Amino acid sequence: MQELTIPLNPKAGIPLYEQIYRYIKEDIQKGRIGAKEKLPSSRALSAHLEVSRSTVDLAYGQLLAEGYLESAPCRGYYACSMEELYRLVPDTEMQEPKDTGKTFAYDYDFTPNGIDLDSFPYGIWRKISRNILIDDKKELFRLGDPKGERELRETIRSYLHQARGVNCSPEQVVLGAGNDYLLLLLSAVLGTGHRIAMETPTYKHAYRIFEQLGFLLSTVPADAQGMQVDQLQKTGADIAYVMPSHQYPLGIVMPIKRRLELLAWAEERKGRYLIEDDYDSEFRYKGKPIPSLQGSDSGGRVIYMGTFSKSIAPAIRISYLVLPRELLRLCEEKLCLFSSTVSRIDQMILNTFIKEGHFERHLNRMRTIYKRKHDLLLAGLKPLSGFCRVAGEQAGVHLLLEFRDGRTEEEVIDRAREAGVRVYPLSEYRTGGERRGEGRCTAVILGYATLSEEEIAEAAKRLVSVWS
Amino acid sequence: MQELTIPLNPKAGIPLYEQIYRYIKEDIQKGRIGAKEKLPSSRALSAHLEVSRSTVDLAYGQLLAEGYLESAPCRGYYACSMEELYRLVPDTEMQEPKDTGKTFAYDYDFTPNGIDLDSFPYGIWRKISRNILIDDKKELFRLGDPKGERELRETIRSYLHQARGVNCSPEQVVLGAGNDYLLLLLSAVLGTGHRIAMETPTYKHAYRIFEQLGFLLSTVPADAQGMQVDQLQKTGADIAYVMPSHQYPLGIVMPIKRRLELLAWAEERKGRYLIEDDYDSEFRYKGKPIPSLQGSDSGGRVIYMGTFSKSIAPAIRISYLVLPRELLRLCEEKLCLFSSTVSRIDQMILNTFIKEGHFERHLNRMRTIYKRKHDLLLAGLKPLSGFCRVAGEQAGVHLLLEFRDGRTEEEVIDRAREAGVRVYPLSEYRTGGERRGEGRCTAVILGYATLSEEEIAEAAKRLVSVWS
User: Fold this and answer.
1) Could you tell me where the DSSP H helices lie in B96-240?
2) B318 touches B346 (CB < 8 A)
3) Among A405, A425, B55, B195, which residue's beta carbon has the most beta carbons within 10 A?
4) Nearest alpha carbon to residue A122 among A318, A353, A307, A317
């Protein structure tokens, strides 16, 4: 082959070997060095280019490793054939979709999502993080238990037993990075042939996730006690998803009788399960928290689900499943494969936060804060009581406002909007045939977690004035 | 009904209202108060028990909320009917499966899993954590972008472009809590009707996960260049999973020609994809890193996957997908539902770690450390070179030792075991019909990341003495 006269620039900031490597690579890519063509020996090339032989060896080595050259013993280096396969990589256009920020700017947003983060004990969290990273640091950076760290699972078990009446062993607790992930995990454990029944209205996010995961879905009307079991029977579902402590969005507390009926339904046939989503039961403003459905389950039919997203912070990404023994076995057999999705360091921070009593103190503080907001909102909306009923109060961080004077949801939302206040239509939470809300009363949802007391008072005032 | 004489103990440490609540609840559960039986008015009961009326109201309120009582306006409280549904919750036996710690104690374990954590800059990580939690703290505790924080995705994009030749926009980068999660996510995006082809031997963990997720799997023999494309054609697979930069466990670097053949295969038919698992390409001890397959992909056929588990620490739980535009659209449509599995705080810590140059410095330091271990192991095993060939060296944190003198894998493993050294049989990584290794040469895998230099030297000495 002809001599390779490579223009080298020692001042280019690119190592000489790399300049050689790039030049030859491009020549081969562009076909200037043809397939099977022999390259100069490294000695010849280094002499020609006036560089050290090791520089050329390094360049040839890289070209060999990437497959641009091949070497034949005692015969030297040859360009590989790229045949017709070669294509230049175009400079891909890296255009980003633009944000079309055309959202309406509300003064007050009663979003049911989000929590009050003003009172979070950041200092304590930071201090614990710092200490965790000092002590025993190396071990924490290794891969942990697929189900989550044993200590934290035991801490959560003990918390759930005391606070929620959940009966389980730490073995049954499985941690995951958020509820969405846990639903994904659950669908892998259960397999997707199942039909899941959900109340309507319901937590739409879970509904959509089940839909996406390929589950069949049925909608069961909720009466004042929650999911109607005779209607559930008719759906042919084998899994029912409920929120017995505080149904979302209706706020219904499922009475013990309905709970026992649901448990009886689940035990009627093998393979039936109840998913209990206990998303915000920490916050109850009157009396004790409502015990979990899992605590009444002697037949191992309840899959209990909880999260620290509401009680600590959404960004924490730690949720937990309590699996019945039968599913636990299945989960361990099938899914011991999946490494935990929660950082071990974060798990240990949370464990300390709970064990040192900070979680309990934080919950008590938040209960007081939310109760004040709750009371303030109820008081502020009082003038509407002539034609408007509050439901789902005394718990959680949202309530429901039902209009009984014939006005439509759209009117209610629009009036609020004109006053700069965002409230959320209940119809958005309905599923299935009930979607269009035939004959249903008009209702809106008001979440009060993210607004300050002043904002709540002012927003309520505006709502009263436009809705009266 | 008869009067309720509830034995109250003001010193029990349990609020009086709760004692009343518990007593009545148990009476209803045990049938001592029958269905539809009327309870004393709260005024009567408070007088009878000599407690304040609000105490009784609180107890009744809780029993109402949980559904043990119902109230009829102006008529008072009635016990609900529990019918035959009621069952006592037994004291569940909380027995734990015992650890049967009967594992053989090796002096030296050449595990291919795990990394060297001695040199991790814990102090810097801790300092960044602390600063992150101070600055702008509140925002970080809110739920973030489902795909991961924009800043970190941009940082990763830039890193991948510079270090791995990956061409993408930050939009195409999706973060997840570990590779296992990303495979779960990917299966939800792709749907499970697909057939995935993997080389044999291969990364068995991914193979098993695909199996569990319900994918069909095909095994394609690897020649010296990696997956054989003509064999791939025959499998009917529409997805091929490859590790072009450093095949696991063989250590093959896929040459450019084979890469282009694979890309051509993927472009031949719509819906075909290549999954490029770029698990340890950061570590290469000779020349530059091998560019990614994604960088040669102009047709949008490569799903690129990488992780910080090897390059930072397994416990960090941050991995990333780079999705081709076509799949990105699908992913965004279907999976915008799923909240990110990575804590926002952790994402910001990692972002700062990379942007301030700590990651690059750490990688360079680790490359030097691993190279020393790699060289030491090669030097230590030199005496075996008469009947034993090293493969897959110059990169990653493991190498392959092939015995060409007819001895069986079992003999090799057993001799090492007797010397207190654990090495890993290649046959464990084979899949499909090739599993039993007909006519294959004997080979073992030695990972050197977790052992110290002294341990490597001593372990190599022992291996030489028992294998010679």
Assistant:
1) 122-134, 137-140, 150-164, 179-190, 204-212, 229-235
2) yes
3) B55
4) A353
Q: Find the radius of gyration of the CA atoms of chain A.
A: 31
Q: Which amino acid is at B125?
A: W
* Cβ atoms within 10 Å of A458's Cβ, excluding its own: 17
Tokens, residue B121: 């800059």
Asked if A274 contacts A262 with a C-beta cutoff of 8 angstroms, the reply is yes
Rounded Cα distance, B334 and B327, in Å:
10
For residue A37, what are the contacts with CB-CB under 8 A and spacing of at least 6?
A: A1, A78, A79
Residue A192 CA: distances (Å) to CA of A185, A215, B189: 11, 5, 15
As given in the structure block, the two tokens for residue A31 are 């076909």
Q: Say how far apart CA B15 and CA A313 lie, in whole Å.
A: 31
Contact B314 A143 (CB under 8 A): yes
CA A319, chain centre distance (Å): 9
- d(Cα B9, Cα A385) in Å, to the nearest integer? 41
* Cβ-based contacts of A143 with chain B (< 8 Å): 113-114, 309, 314-315
**Which strand (E) or helix (H) includes residue B436?**
none
Question: How is residue B177 written in tokens?
Answer: 């809590």
Which pairing describes strands A273-277 and A302-307: parallel, antiparallel, or unpaired? parallel
Which two structure tokens, joined as six digits, stand for B263? 């890309």
Query: What DSSP state is assigned to residue A281?
Result: T
DSSP strands (E only) in A94-211:
108-109, 173-176, 195-200
The identity of residue B394, as a single letter, is Q
Q: Pick from B263, B337, B345: which is nearest to A180 by CB?
A: B337
Q: Quick check: A98 contacting B, CB < 8 Å? A: no
So what's the ipTM on this one? 0.76
Residues present in chain A in total = 468
Contacts of B315 in chain A (CB under 8 A): 140-144, 343-345
Q: Please choose, from the candidates B40, B53, B41, the residue with its C-alpha nearest in 3D space to the C-alpha of residue B4.
A: B40
| Type of residue found at A14 | I
Residue type, A281: S
Q: In A130-270, which ranges are E strands?
A: 173-176, 195-200, 216-223, 226-227, 239-242
CA distances from A438 to A427, A442, A445, B219, B255 (A): 10, 10, 19, 55, 64
SS3 B390: strand
- As a whole number of Å, the CA-based R_g of chain B is 31
For residues A327 and A131, is the Cβ–Cβ distance under 8 A? no
Surface of B (135-154) touching A: CB under 8 A? 137-138, 140-144
Neighbouring-strand partners of residue B277:
B305
Along the 468 residues of chain B, how does pLDDT read in single tens digits? 557 888 888 888 888 888 898 888 888 887 788 888 888 888 888 888 889 998 998 898 888 888 888 888 778 888 887 664 444 444 444 444 444 445 678 999 999 888 888 888 888 888 898 888 776 567 777 778 889 999 999 999 999 998 888 999 999 999 999 999 999 889 888 887 899 999 999 998 899 899 888 899 999 988 989 999 999 999 999 999 999 999 999 988 899 999 999 999 999 999 999 999 998 888 888 877 788 999 999 999 999 999 998 888 888 889 999 999 999 988 888 767 788 899 888 999 999 999 999 999 898 889 899 999 999 999 999 999 999 999 888 888 999 999 988 899 999 999 999 999 999 999 888 886 554 444 567 999 999 999 999 999 999 999 999 998
Q: How far is CA B93 from each of CA A172, A299, A325, rounded to the nearest angstrom?
A: 13, 13, 12
φ/ψ region of A428 (left if φ > 0, alpha if ψ in -120 to 50, else beta) reads alpha
- B277 phi/psi in degrees, rounded to 5: -95, 105
Per-residue tokens: A18: 């790399």
Q: Is B343 on the interface with A (CB under 8 A)?
A: yes
* Chain B residue numbers touching A335 (CB-CB < 8 A): 212
Distance from C-alpha of A177 to C-alpha of A272, rounded to nearest angstrom:
26
